[in-house]
Write a structure and sequence with these properties.
By secondary structure, the chain is an alpha+beta fold. About 35% of the residues lie in helices and about 20% in strands. The strands form six sheets. The protein has an eight-stranded mixed sheet. A five-stranded mixed sheet has the order 9-10-13-11-12. A four-stranded antiparallel sheet has the order 18-19-20-24. It has 17 helices and 24 strands.
């Protein structure tokens, strides 16, 4: 029987290694920028095109490489940082596994220019799929410039699995921000296409945070300092009332290396206990410094997970440090978190435009069928329609007719049907089978979702102009996301124009939505869109319609007038899918009259 085991060619072995090291463009960005930091660079520039798929380039002014080192850097397991096994447990540099450049070169068309300060000429290397096509002397600046073109061009399956440009840019920005935060003493520049998205100068950590995330963070940062014999904690935490509904602005660094740790995140969240609104996450940038002998960083291919030899001690110190920071700076919430922060929270003081609820002029067959079904459902109202209409929502008890201690109670019902709001959450309406309980928030989400989907399809959304346009400053990732879906936002009725770096001027919002909180609506829309991106796999337009419907829908606790309740109930029944919200939650429930008879044991 012939032998069947053989060694893999280097090109294939490198592609396999690339599967662990280079999962997406952001992975290559991380590896290249870490190498630049290790090379002693003081200025690192990142350039991307087409979300890094067409080009990602990292330029540094570090010490550069000799001709031999440049060629050796492309070999597997080539590293300047490890000489013996013990070195794995005393690492103070970023990259060390000796896989990065070889892995990236295996799945791209890569060009490297590098020169040491002592050399007159540098070295140019052109590599395609691990094969060196050219190597020659070149005139170039001191340091190293690596261009990665057409990432995964030779692995179409991997390229097809990449997400949309906005998602991939977000991952790149995340890596850029983490490294920029970890090294505030260095200057970083980030260029997306022709636009300089971020240019942060060397300085203090607080200056770096404000430069990356905006001036609004200037007033919410509290220093966090604690030191024990085992570990030292430093950094900043944000005010509880500035917490966001999505993760993404929580940064933990161990010996200047970004890590993910649910265990230590829990320590921070416990310190914030009682201060945060539900399902929200505070901003924090925390640095842990401890002897490298107490940690093992070589436990994950991307080096973002580590092990401590005494996790409980680290947990306790982190928790105590954050609590002390919150207490020392009196960071108590100044907002009432029980208050509804939805865009329609003040609806009870306004008259809703009925066009939000009423069906479109041209209904689909499904909508007409739903309406006919609804009319049949309510045609047998079980209380008189001849009683006077009411101006205010009536109490549930006022619908009951009977005697108590010989005193007869008067029944007050609307002119057209039984209709009242119960517990500030449900619209109760009499229908032929019994009582229908409509979840007002869920119903409104369904109505708005179908309305927005129709507008996106027909590019027909109307806009209402703001009396005072507002400037909205965003993170680089959120700004890129906003620009990618600018056409869809315009179709919904948003009116936006670029107003400086990562800033837009908001001059109009979708018609029929109450005015006064346009900025909060746009920011909430972006937050919800990102939540959906992480949990759903739906097209951009559907995600956008879902997100806006969820953020613009009326909430539980919102007081509605009778005509508003009736319009919402009617509009729900002409929807294509009236039974459920876009997320699949029921919008209404019918309590059948027969069940009521059973409760009273009537035969």
């Amino acid at each position: 029987m012939p032998d069947i085991i053989q060694l893999l060619p280097d090109s294939i072995a490198n592609q396999i290694a690339a599967g662990e090291v280079v999962q997406r463009p952001a992975s290559a960005v991380k590896e290249l920028m870490e190498n630049a930091i290790d090379a002693g660079a003081t200025h690192i520039k990142l350039i991307i095109k087409d979300a890094g798929k067409a080009l990602l380039q990292v330029i540094d002014n570090g010490k550069g490489m000799s001709e031999t080192d440049a060629r050796m850097s492309l070999e597997r397991h080539a590293t300047s940082k490890i000489r013996k096994a013990e070195d794995l447990f005393s690492l103070h540099t970023m990259g060390f596994r000796g896989e990065a450049l070889a892995s990236i070169a295996a799945v791209s068309q890569m060009e490297m220019k590098t020169r040491q300060a002592s050399d007159e000429l540098g070295t140019l290397l052109v590599v395609e799929a691990s094969e060196v096509k050219r190597q020659e002397p070149v005139a170039c600046d001191k340091g190293t410039s690596i261009s990665v073109k057409n990432l995964f061009y030779n692995i179409p399956a991997r390229r097809n699995f990449l997400k949309s440009n906005s998602v991939e840019v977000k991952h790149i920005v995340d890596e850029f921000q983490r490294l920029a935060l970890a090294h505030p003493h260095l200057t970083f520049t980030y260029v997306n296409g022709e636009d300089v998205e971020s240019d942060v100068q060397a300085g203090k950590l607080s200056q770096r945070i404000i430069a990356l995330f905006g001036k609004s963070y200037q007033q919410q940062l509290a220093p966090c300092e604690e030191e024990t014999a085992y570990v030292k904690i430093s950094g900043y935490v944000g005010r509880p009332e500035s917490a966001k509904k999505t993760r993404g602005e929580q940064f933990l660094f161990v010996n200047n290396r970004f890590i993910r740790s649910n265990y230590l995140h829990h320590a921070v969240m416990t310190a914030f206990e009682g201060l945060l609104p539900d399902n929200s996450y505070p901003f924090y940038v925390l640095f842990l410094s401890l002897d490298s002998k107490h940690i093992d960083v070589n436990v994950h291919p991307t080096k973002t997970e580590i092990k401590f030899d005494d996790e409980r001690s680290v947990y306790g110190v982190v928790q105590a440090a954050v609590r002390q920071a919150l207490g020392a700076h009196s960071l108590r919430p100044s907002l009432d978190f029980q208050q509804d922060e939805n865009i329609l929270e003040k609806l009870s003081s306004q008259q809703l435009d009925k066009d939000v609820y009423y069906q479109e002029r041209f209904q689909t067959i499904t909508q007409r069928n739903n309406l006919e079904h609804w009319e049949k459902l309510v045609e047998g109202e079980w209380l008189s329609k001849k009683t006077p209409s009411f101006e205010k929502p009536i109490d549930q008890l006022s619908l009951l007719q009977g005697t108590s201690a010989g005193i007869e109670k008067e029944v007050t019902v609307p002119e057209e049907s039984i209709l009242f709001q119960w517990q500030g959450k449900y619209i109760v309406r009499g229908v032929k089978p019994g009582l229908m309980f409509i979840d007002q928030q869920a119903a409104h989400e369904r109505v708005l979702f179908e309305k927005f989907m129709q507008q996106l399809k027909q590019q027909s959304g109307q806009s209402q102009q703001s009396l005072f346009p507002q400037s909205v400053q965003l993170s680089a990732a959120d700004f890129a996301l906003l620009m990618e879906m600018e056409q869809e936002l315009n179709a919904l009725g948003f009116r936006l124009e670029v107003f400086g770096k990562n800033t837009v001027l908001l001059s109009g919002t979708p018609a029929h939505l109450p005015t006064g909180r346009e900025k909060q609506l746009l920011e909430g829309l972006l937050e919800q869109f990102k939540i959906n991106q992480d949990t759903l796999s739906v097209p951009l337009q559907e995600n956008l319609a879902r997100s806006l419907a969820k953020r613009a829908a009326i909430r539980a606790g919102q007081k509605l007038m009778p005509e508003e309740m009736r319009s919402l109930a009617d509009s729900l029944m002409v929807c294509k899918s009236p039974n459920y919200t876009p997320e699949g939650s029921p919008t209404f429930f019918i309590f059948e009259a027969g069940k009521m008879e059973n409760y009273f044991k009537r035969q």
